[in-house]
Amino acid sequence: MSLEVKIPPLGESISSGVLATWHVADGDTVKNGQALFELETDKITSEGLAEADGVISLKVEEGAEVKIGEVVAEIDTDAKGETAPTSSAPAEEEPDAPAAESTQSPAVRRLAEETDVDPSTVEGTGKAGRVTKGDMLAAAKSPETPSSSSAPTPAPKPQPAAAKPAASGERQTRKKMTPLRAKIAERLVQAQQQAAMLTTFNEVDMSAVMELRKKYQDVFVKKNGFKLGFMSFFTKAVVHALKEVPGVNAMIDGKEIVTNNYYDVGVAVSTPKGLMVPVIRDCDTLSMAGIESAIGEVAKRARDGKITLADLDGGVFTITNGGIFGSMLSTPILNAPQSAILGLHAINERPMAVNGEVVIRPMMYLALSYDHRLVDGKEAVTFLVKVKEAIEDPTRLLLDI
């Protein structure tokens, strides 16, 4: 019996994507529920799972654009083959079984180009001695690459220390933009073209928050199992400021102004696939630990490619932290249709005048970009001052003042 492997539906707004990676090779034995491929769309990256046990036959190469519902492989549920490796460790070697180049899977050919590992020098563990993706990954990670010797313990071949250089005279390389990167680019340009974007700045003394974290960090970790970071403080400060300046918690919809009476805050996360903004729901009802936990969970899913449309949907305000990369100052771009975004930056010790004396304080620049069509300068500046006050005196968050 043959079972078709189709691209699953991911939401009404997604009709196609790019089959970025096969996690299995042609002829591998797969198990029900096993991840087969990675699909990149203009919104999320998701995985396709096997719906039965059997031997898989690939129909589409990596990098191909596919439609929702398209058949990309077939699983022969009556056949038996070699189990696809689930780790980087190679399976038992079959030194007498040649790995013909004509039978190499798309994944093996791609890895050969990327790692400069010659598949003919790798002992195949697949059907009829075929070199699998797992064999190539193991060879690339190993300090020595196995040769095609027929001895039980293959003679080693040195692994190239550097990536394959560009061809002589080649000064540029080209590759197709992924759907996610293309969508990010489109949204950023639209945000700049459709909004009257303006940025206002302030600086905040991080001494109080840093002292609070230092004092209670061990107790916090012992109770919750994770560290108390800066993002929970800023998220709470943003919620406080949105309540004080509700005009920032609004957006333009055609000729109407929509004011939000809830506090779902987006947190920008840098991933290998591009920037994503998962949303933390109802931040006004969450504790500091609840916010830290939620941010950690969605950030991990985003980086692991497990993010869903529900994680990205909605949001009334966004916080982006370029400081983790060392940014001193920036002008963040709006996350449409939101009307404002707060940019955090690196914490640097600087001399500051305090009560007529020069003291060294850990300072951070804050940047609030906002849509001037909706938010006036007074509201933007007041909002940023409220954030500053809450961070410099965290007890304000407890007393809601």
TrEMBL record:
Domain annotation Peripheral subunit-binding (PSBD): ranges: 103-140
Superkingdom of origin: Bacteria
Record text on cofactor binding: Binds 1 lipoyl cofactor covalently.
Enzyme category, top tier: transferase
Domain Lipoyl-binding: 2-76
Organism in which the protein naturally occurs: Synoicihabitans lomoniglobus
Named cofactor requirement(s): (R)-lipoate
UniProt-recorded name of the protein: Dihydrolipoyllysine-residue succinyltransferase component of 2-oxoglutarate dehydrogenase complex
Reactions performed catalytically: N(6)-[(R)-dihydrolipoyl]-L-lysyl-[protein] + succinyl-CoA = N(6)-[(R)-S(8)-succinyldihydrolipoyl]-L-lysyl-[protein] + CoA
CDD domains: lipoyl_domain
Function: E2 component of the 2-oxoglutarate dehydrogenase (OGDH) complex which catalyzes the second step in the conversion of 2-oxoglutarate to succinyl-CoA and CO(2).
Keyword Transferase set for record: yes
NCBIfam families, A to Z: PRK05704.1, sucB
